Amino acid sequence: MASAASQATLSFLPSTSASSSSRRQPAPSILPLSRSPIALRSPIRRLGFAGAAADPLLAFHVASKTRAVVGRGVRGVVSMAKKSVGDLSEADLKGKVVFLRADLNVPLDENRNITDDTRIRAAIPTIKHLMSKGAKVLLSSHLGRPKGVTPKFSLAPLVPRLSELLGVPVEKADDCIGPEIEQKAAALPEGGVLLLENVRFYPEEEKNDPEFAKKLAAVADLYVNDAFGTAHRAHASTEGVTKYLKPSVAGFLLQKELDYLVGAVSNPKRPFAAIVGGSKVSSKIGVIESLLEKVDILLLGGGMIFTFYKAQGLSVGSSLVEEDKLELATTLLAKAKAKGVSLLLPSDVVIADKFAPDANSKIVPSSAIPDGWMGLDIGPDSIELFSKELETTKTVIWNGPMGVFEFDKFAVGTEAIAKKLAELSGKGVTTIIGGGDSVAAVEKVGVAGVMSHISTGGGASLELLEGKELPGVVALEEAVPVAV
Ligand SMILES: Nc1ncnc2c1ncn2[C@@H]1O[C@H](COP(=O)(O)OP(=O)(O)O)[C@@H](O)[C@H]1O
Ligand SMILES: O=C(OP(=O)(O)O)[C@H](O)COP(=O)(O)O
After folding, report:
1. Which of 40, 86, 197, 386 is least enclosed, having the fewest CB within 10 Å?
2. What spacing in Å lies between the alpha carbon of 275 and ligand 1's midpoint?
3. What is the pLDDT along the chain (484 residues), one digit of tens a residue?
4. Which ligand 2 atom sits closest to the C-alpha of 144?
5. Looking at beta carbons, which pairs linking 437-440 to residues 24 or more positions away fall under 8 Å?
6. Is 280 a catalytic residue?
7. Given ligand 1 and candidates 404, 408, 461, which is best to mutate, with the most ligand atoms within 8 Å of its CB?
């Protein structure tokens, strides 16, 4: 049975939602401050294609699959798209030297062993495709944020795993430009792969220096960008190089990321819910504002909720609060209401007497956080409330953990959401995990494989969800417009 806290929440829910259940009551026009949590609901909005087409993000659509998503049920609408590596013919690729920018920025332990090879595995389909078409692949990436040539940031530890996944020995160069590359590129057989050294060993890379970009392009015939995780950086190997290599096209991973983070989000199967967590409101303002234009339901968790509670006049103890964002929190709540978005804050929280894995903890209603205690996770009623809400949806996007999931004691909320999304994914709901810590949580629970899409880019996915243009995508060639 639901506790008093969750019943208080449910009493705020009106009966008008398409995702509704019989429990909904009309929302009060003014939220009583004493009655946290906040649950604002009004009818599900349905953005037609006109709404989606007006979204500038749709200009980034690259895949034919995306075109189908964008154009579903709409005749005569032209979809803007980026040219894809899949659009190139065998003649375009056979014997050609391809500069392929991937994001192989993987975590290494102190012995330089790869601790998570996700980004390498994600790059494989494009590399294999180029190999199968007889291209000669110059594979480029950064690793970490080196200041000049730094051996510990060499790409050498990646060679064995790349070779294993590709089924061929991958040779590595000691540089990414210059005579060695010219010589090795000339000696590459069709279908061969040469891994270039860390492109950030040159400071010119991050400065997007045109002369450096020209040197990167020097031995190649064409450019493929598959580095989604770095597409928000206007660097020489992600943006500058496109000025010197034609065509410059998108790889399969980049396509897939855009399909989900732009396509599915701009024209989702509804009801469409977003779950936004993480530490601070300030780092998620852009995402929340952008998602408020698109979603039917917005569930908030993580450290940011305490700023919303405080803005509502509640006591939050020593929880994380951004005092200068209280007004903003109130504005966002009002915006959600005005837009008819159902915005839910957790009804109960797990509080701790210190910020530590071994802190004493207890569960309290969100409106009853005592002085000296801080909220570090969402509580069981909130998990139930969020889970019920999520069951009404057809598309869910998640960015940011529900609590301090790095501490086992406060990982329950985040892990419960991960499991819920896995369950929903199995029932045909589109589940999109938007990078960063949410991906780590999903992996920790062992349900990454069942999600519809797990983004390989934290910062890049955040920027996309904020509605920003990614320089690495903008720079790519437009596909021939297709009437859908
Ligand atoms: N209640 C909380 N109090 C303090 N920090 C929190 C709380 N909930 C979550 N966090 C922290 O938020 C961090 C993630 O925030 P953020 O970087 O914004 O998310 P993401 O990486 O998913 O974009 C995690 O390190 C987590 O410990
Ligand atoms: O790991 C990356 O970004 P992410 O941590 O935001 O996912 C990318 O490789 C970009 O790296 P950068 O943030 O050093 O430019």
Report:
1. 86
2. 13
3. 233 332 222 222 222 222 322 222 222 222 222 222 333 322 222 222 222 333 333 333 333 333 322 322 222 233 348 999 999 999 999 999 999 999 999 999 999 999 999 999 999 999 999 999 999 999 999 999 999 999 999 999 999 999 999 999 999 999 999 999 999 999 999 999 999 999 999 999 999 999 999 999 999 999 999 999 999 999 999 999 999 999 999 999 999 999 999 988 889 999 999 999 999 999 999 999 999 999 999 999 999 999 999 999 999 999 999 999 999 999 999 999 999 999 999 999 999 999 999 999 999 999 999 999 999 999 999 999 999 999 999 999 999 999 999 999 999 999 999 999 999 999 999 999 997 888 989 999 999 999 999 999 999 999 999 989 999 999 999 987 655 5
4. 14
5. 437/278, 437/400, 437/401, 437/405, 438/277, 438/398, 438/399, 438/400, 438/401, 438/414, 440/405
6. yes
7. 404
Q: Which two tokens stand for residue 342?
A: 């159902």
Cβ < 6 A, ligand 2 pocket: 103, 105, 145, 229-230, 233, 435, 457-459
pTM: 0.82
Q: Is residue 428 among the annotated active site residues? A: no
Determine the longest span between alpha carbons in the chain, in angstroms.
73
Name the residue at shortest CA distance from atom 14 of ligand 1: 278
